[in-house]
Amino acid sequence: xxxxxxxxxxxxxxxxxxxxxxxxLLVEMEQRRSCRDFSPKPVPRDLIEQAIAIAHSAPSGxxxxxWRFVAIDDLTIKREIRIAAEHEEKESYDHRMPxxxxxxxxxxxTTWKKPFLEVAPWLVVIFRIDWEEIDSRxxxxxxxxxxxxxxxxxxxxxxxxxxxxxxxxxxxxxxxLRDICRRPENEKPxxxxxxxxxxxxxxxPDLVKKPLTDAMxxxxxxxx
Length: 224
Hints:
Structural class: alpha+beta
């Protein structure tokens, strides 16, 4: 049976506007930084829901949307997550991470202590869903890792555009998140993202970004 197709168009944009908007957007997104010093100022639930809705619009393998967003503002659960995350992080910093990895983290100034997990008004845990049970059958999802990554990127950009600070936190291992969030075995923790506003005196590392020329390549037609 052929797929059902519907019309698709984009709002026409003037080329001059496109270039101007691209430059504006670049300036906006270059201001996004990983925040580790959050304000306890509340963030409305509806704002988080809208950001997740934007993330849910991301493309995915076979349109399976193999992700779950768990949004947490419960103080007890956030405390439980912090305790479990710091336990794993301390093990990593003390025993698991090679010297090369620790050296790479030194300019960022991170340690095993993660107070932001309790201070940030929201923790959003993204799970990837490797398979689902449909009609008593285990049905595989396609490209769940890549799909969850796309949704995470949409979410981070949405939050920044809405004036919210974020951090991509990946305690390793992080299966404790599945237990705390009471998710089934087919869902695997992908990212833990604190969301909120920067603290009043928030400071971030002064890092030098890799130049764009190191991250792209042009293969252009000789006729252009």
